[in-house]
Structures are given as structure tokens and as C-alpha cells.
Amino acid sequence: MERVSLQEELKSNAYPGRGIVIGRTPDGTKAVAAYFIMGRSENSRNRIFVKEGEGIRTQAFDPAKLSDPSLIIYAPVRVLGNKTIVTNGDQTDTIYEGMDRQLTFEQTLRSREFEPDAPNYTPRISGIMHIENGKYNYAMSILKSSHGDPASCCRYTFAYENPAAGEGHFIHTYKNDGNPLPSFEGEPKLVGMMDDQEAFTRMLWESLNEDNKVSLFVRYIDIATGAYESTVRNKNE
């Protein structure tokens, strides 16, 4: 697969929706996860990321303006032992609870499908990172309708064992802006990563559309020790 510029992918798309990036730093020492949310409606834009345990949760910036919490308030990031879960919805909890019962990542998502937000039927995108004894692998999933048909759910899982240094994968909910919003197509895009967490965070945040971006989370995990550092950017401060 040809590597694409993550910066250009974001700058050239005014509305990729929600996105997950998972990969490995060029020096090979860190596992990287990034998650961003965007919004077109007042309800979607009225959010911030807040820390919760070892992960994060979305929260209304102005509670008085929160009209429907069902698909916008959830925990995008949770940690289960040596596994870090990153998703665009409450399937984070489904994966956490299922894997805690020894189900696989793919098995946990069998009980879920795309979001019930007709006519968009927004895909559920998910990622799982596993670090153990200095070894690192990750997987990504997308659950989407079949060409906008809510009667059919297409399930795709992509697994990356011992990922190459300097490489990552990017998956997002929408191909671009539109009405209805067209779902992401194909496998996760191969992108380059960066050693410097602050520079990577700044590149992502500045590349997202200024009007539509809402929040960004970035975590770098030391593959040898499991220690991590996290960064959060919220447009609403």
C-alpha cells in the first residue's frame, strides 16, 4: 500500500468526521494512538475531552446546550491491563467488557453495528493496541452499512503484527462532507508517524478544519515499559 501524508489527508478533507490513528514512532520505541472528533451541529460541537481513569470521556462544554447525549457522550479511550482501546462510540465499553471475559477484539464487536443515525448510518470505528514483553501489535475495525442500506452490516477487521517503525494507519468515519454523509471506504490508510509527540499533536490539530474540529487526544506509550504520556486539545476552553 502506498503511504499517504496524514497532514494532507486532513487538510484536504473538511469533514472526515471522527478519526483514529494508530502506529509506531520512527525510532521504534513508542506506540502511538490519536483520536479526534469533529462536528457540524451545535450539539456535536458542544463537547470537550476530559480525563477519566487511564482514558478519556466526552463531556458537554455547556450542559445547557446538550440536546441529545445518545451518540456524542461516551468514553473514546479505555485501558484494560496491557491493552488500550480507542473507538468513536460506546462500543469502547463493549470491547472492554468482552475482552475482560477473554473474547477477542473481533468477537466483542459482533454484538454491535453502525450507528442508528439515519440517513448517515455512521460507521463505528475501533482500535485495540496490545503491548506485552516489549512486543507491540494493533488492530482496527470498521462496522458500516452496505452502501447506506441499514438492513446490511459490513464488518471489517485489520490486524497489524509487529508494525514497522515510522508507520501507522488512519481510519475515519466519512469519506468527505455531504448529505447524507458518505461512509469511509477501503482499508485504513498507511501514514507516516513522528517521534515528537508535541509536534505530532500540533500537526494533527492544525490540519483539522478550523470550523469543524472539536477535540483531539494523542497518547505515546513506551513499548519497553508501558509508561505513557497523553495530550488533549479542546476547541472549547
CATH architectural type: 4-Layer Sandwich
* CATH C-level label: Alpha Beta
Could you name the ranges where pLDDT drops below 50 across 5 or more consecutive residues?
none
Looking at CATH, the homologous superfamily is Inosine monophosphate cyclohydrolase-like
Number of helices: 5
Overall number of structural domains = 1
Order of helices and strands: HEEHEEEEHHEEEEEHEE
Report mean pLDDT, rounded to a whole number. 97
Beta-strand content:
35-45%
Rg: 16 Å
- Proportion of helical residues: 10-25%
How many beta-strand elements? Answer: 13
Features:
five-stranded antiparallel β-sheet, mainly beta, single chain, globular, 237 residues, 15% helix, Glutamine Phosphoribosylpyrophosphate, subunit 1, domain 1, six-stranded antiparallel β-sheet
Write the layout of secondary structure elements.
Blueprint (H helix, E strand, L loop, with lengths): L5 H6 L7 E6 L5 E9 L3 H4 L1 E6 L2 E6 L16 E4 L2 E5 L3 H10 L4 H4 L15 E9 L2 E12 L2 E13 L5 E6 L16 E4 L4 H11 L5 E10 L5 E7 L3
Antiparallel strand pairs: 1-2, 1-10, 2-12, 3-4, 5-6, 6-7, 7-8, 8-9, 10-11, 12-13
